[in-house]
Amino acid sequence: MKFTDKLIDAVDKKLERFDPLWQAEHGVGGQRSRYYDKTGVAKWREWRGVRDTFYDYSAWLKNLAAMAGMVASAPLPILKGFWEYRWMGSYLGTFMFIDRLFEGYRGTELRIAHMNMYGIVQNLTKKIAFILANDKRLGGGPDSDKCIPFDETIPPLFLKGFKGLTPVPMQTLPEFIICDIDQHIEPYYIDVAESFGLAADVCSRCAAEAGVALDDAFPILGKVMLSTNMPCNASEATSMFQRRRIGLPDFPVTMAMQHAEKEAIPYSRQELLNAIAFVEEHYGVKYDWDTFYKYAEIMNEQNAIELEKWEIFKTPYSALSGIAETLYKLYEWQSANGADPYFNKIDRKVIEIMRQAYEEKYQPFGGKTRHRAFLWGPSAVYYTDFPTWTQNCWGITIVLNMDSTMGYNQIDTSDREKALDDLTALEQRATMRHHAVGGWDNVNAVWDWAKKFNCDMVLMNDNIACKGMLGVHAMMEEQARDLGFHFIFIEHDLEDSRTVSRQDMRNCVNNYMSVVLNEKPLDPTIVEFDDSQAY
Amino acid sequence: MKDLKHLIYFENLLQDAQNELVTKAIEDGKLALGYNCYYIPETLLNLPGCFSSRLRAPRCTSTDVAGYYMTNRTCPYARSILERAIEGGYNYLNALFGAESCATMERMEEHFELLHPVKNERFFSTIMDPPMKGDKNNLEYYKVQLRKNILLPLQEHYGVDISDEAIRKAIDDHNAVSAIIEAIGDHRRADNPNITGYEFHVIQLVSQVCPHELILPYLRETLWELEKREPEPKFPFRARVALVGSEVDDPEFTKLIESCGAMVVADRYCFGSFPSREQITVRDGETAFDAVCRHYLHWNQCARFMDGMKIDQRHHEVERLVKEFKADGVIYENMKFCEFWSYEKVLANHIFTNELHIPCCTIEKEYALGAVGQLRTRFQAFIESLEIKQIHGGK
Amino acid sequence: MKNVLAFLLKLLGKIALVALILFAATFALYITNGENKLIYYVIRPFLNKHYDAQVRDKRIV
Predict the structure, then answer these.
(1) CB interface of A with B, residues 438-497, below 8 Å
(2) How does residue A379 score in pLDDT terms, banded at 50, 70 and 90?
(3) Is residue B292 part of a domain?
(4) Is residue B350 part of a domain?
(5) I need a surface site. Which of A9, A53, A261, B242 has the fewest CB within 10 A?
(6) What are the residue ranges spanned by the domains of chain C?
(7) B347: which chain C residues are within 8 Å (Cβ-Cβ)?
(8) CA gap C5, C11 in Å, rounded
(9) Complex-level ipTM
C-alpha cells in the first residue's frame, strides 16, 4: 500500500462520522440530517470519503466551468433569457439537482454517474446558449432562420440530414428538462393553461406545454415547426395551442401508434419523408443523405454500446444503474439522438469502466442492494430523484427504466431504402411511447424485460392523469400477482407536485416495503421527510 | 305538437343494447357487429349478412367493476361500456371493431380480449390504428387499417362477402338511411320546427343501434308523418343552439337543454348526425371501398386530428351548422376525463367567441346523467345571455 | 542562470499559491454548499419577484 493510500485511509477513518452512509449504518443520522427542514438546501455537501468527495468536487468544478462557458459564449442573450423567461431562473437549481441525484454514490458508480451527467451538462449548456442567442424574441442571431423547431418527442436524428440547419427541440428548455430540476416551475404554467378553461384532469406535462405557449414563453426560432402525435393523446392535443401561438407553418409528424405492426413502417416512413419535403420546401435546401449517414453511424455506435451495457445490467456487478442510467439514456437518446459525438466518447469510457468493474465483480452501493427493480417511469422519476432514494432508503436498485428501451436497432447506412426502414423503426420507438401506446402487448412487455434483467420487482409510476395507463391498472396488478413480481404503483401527477407530493410518492414504496415485505430502511432519516419547498 | 307515432317505440329500443330489433336480426341469422367510434365506418359493418350496432350502455348507473380495471379517472363512456360488457350486455355481438382513437377507448376495447366478457364463442375483436391527418398518406394508412381490421377478419371468421359489389350494396343501405335521417333533420331548419331536438336525437340514435333493414320502415313512416305534422303555433323555445363536442348518446341530455329553454337544432357530436348521415358517393374509377375510406376520413370531426386543414374544418363545420340551422349559440360539451376534447373545448371556445363571434357555452359532463342541477344553471344562464343578445339586436 | 531559476521558482510558487487559494476558495464554496444557499435564499427570491411582476401576453392567438 502506498503512503498516500494509507494517509487517505487514515483521514477517511477519522472523518467517517461525517459520512451519511456511515451515520445511517450506525444509527446516528443519515442523508437527511444535513438538510435544512423542508428545503432542498443542504447545510454542507455530502462527505463521501477523501477520494469520492474530491471526485465529486472536481465534477462540480467541471460543471461550473461548462456553465461559465455557456454564459461567456452568449452573455447578453443569457442575461436577457434570465430576465424574460421564468423557466430560465429554474436552471439555477441545477447544482442542487445534481447533488440530489447522486446522494450516496461512491466509487465507480459515482464516477460513471458524473461522466454521464457531464455529457448532459455540456450539451444542454450549449443548447441553451445557442437557442437564446438566436431567439427572435431576444433580438435574434445569425442562425435564427437556420433552425428547425420541432416537438421534442420527435427523435431529431432524421433532421440531421439538413446540412447547415439546426434542429431545435421546442419544449426541452421551458418544460422537459426544467421540470426535473425544479418541481415548482411547471405548476405556474399549468395554472396558466387551466385559467383558460383547460380541465385539471389532463396530463400535467401537456398542460404545462400548453401553459408555456399561452404564456408566450417559447423561444422563437426558425421558419416552420414540426409537431407530432408522440407520445400520446394529450401531447397531440397540446400541439394545437403551440401551433397557433408560435404561428409558424406546421407539419405534424404523425407516427403510427401501433408501431409493432408491420403496416406501421411504410406509413411512418412516408411521414418522415413528407416532413423532409416540407422542410426542403420552406428552407429551400436539399436533404443530404451522406450527412444523415454520418450521424446515423454515431447513433449506431451508441446503440451498440447500449446493448453491451444491458448485458452487464443483468448481473449484480453493474456500476451503472438508477438515475445515472435512466436520465443519461433519456437525454442521450431523445435529445441528442446521434447529433453529438461527445456522448460516444462518454459511452466508450463508461463501457470500459463497466467491463472492468464486472471483471472485478464489483458490487455497487456497498453491496447493499436488496431488490432489483425494473422501472416504468417518466419525469416524476427525476425531479424526485426517486431511483436514488429507493437505493439509499430501501436498497432497491433500479436496473433499467422502460423509457431506456427506446429504439435500439442499427441503421443500415449502405442502402437508402434499408436506412429509411431502420430509421423509421428507431424513430417509432420514442420516449414515453413505445411501451405505452399501440396495444396491451407493448405495456405487458414490462414483465419480460424485468425477467430478462433478473429483477424481482417492478416499480410503476402511476400518473394519475395518464388515461392510457390508468386503463390497464388492474391488469398490471393481476399480471404481477400471476408472475410473482413485487409490484408497486407509485402515484404521481407528473409535473404537478401539488397534487401528489414527493413524500406521497415515497410513501407508496414505504408502505409496501414496511407493511408487505416487513423490511427495515437502510437510512431511517429519509423514510419520511418534508421536502415540499425544495426545487 | 301531436306525438310522433313511433317515438315511444324508439325510446324503448334505446333502453337496451340488445333491443327487440337486434334480437330479431340475430334470429334471422345476421351477424351483430359492434363499434364505438366514427373512425369505424358503419357502412363496412352493414355488408350483406351483417348489421352494425353502435355500443351504448343505457341505464348504466355504476361502473364499479370497470372502475377496478380502468380506475375511476378515465372516460365514463368507456368505463360504462366495459361495465355493461362484464354484466353480459353485449353477448349478442359477433365482433367488436375498435380503434386506438383515444387511449381510454383502446384500453376499454382491449379488455374485450383480455377478460372475454362477451359470452359468444365466435366473438372476436380488433383494434385499428386510425389516421390523424387528412392527407394522402393518412388516407392510404386508413385503407390499410380498415382492410386489415374489418374486411379481412370478417371474411376470415364469418365468410362475409367483402367484394366491391357487396360494399356498393352497403353504401346504398347507408345512403338510404342517411337520406331519411337527413330529411327528418332538415325539419329543424325551419323558423318554427315541427320536431324537437330530443325527438331527433332519439331517431338518430335508433338509426345507429338498430339493424338498418328493420328500422328503416319506421323511420320512413316517421318522415311521412313529419311532412304533415303541424308545429306549435309559436316557437316554444327561447333560443336555438347547436350541441357540439364529444360523445353524447343519451337523449335525456338533449331534453335537459331543451327543458332549460333552448332547442337543439344541430347535433355535431359523436353519435350525432353531423357527421354520420352524409351521402357516400363513389367517384368514377374509384372502388366502393376507397369511396368509403375517403368519405369517412373527410367527414370525421374528431378532435384528435392534428393537421391545420382538419382542425380548421371542424370549426368551420360548426360555423356552417350554426348558419344553416340558424342557431343563436353553441353548447360545447366534453366527456369528463377526455384529453382531446378538453383541449379542443378551450380552443373552440376561443375561436367561436372571439373569431367567429358565435356565443359559446362550454361544459363537462358525465356519461350517466345524475345530478344535473349545475348543468341546468349553466344552460339557463347561457340561454338568458342569448336572449339578452337578441334583445340588443345581436350585439 | 541562477536568476532565471529563481524567477521560475518564484513564478511556480506564485502559481501554486494562486492555485491553492483558488482551490481553498472553491472547495470551501463547494463543501459549505455556498452557491446553492446563495441561489436558494437570495437570487431565486429576487428573480421570482421579477417574474411575478412581469406583465405577460397571455392569450390564445
Answers:
(1) 438-440, 464-468, 470-475
(2) low
(3) no
(4) no
(5) A9
(6) 2-53
(7) 60
(8) 10
(9) 0.95
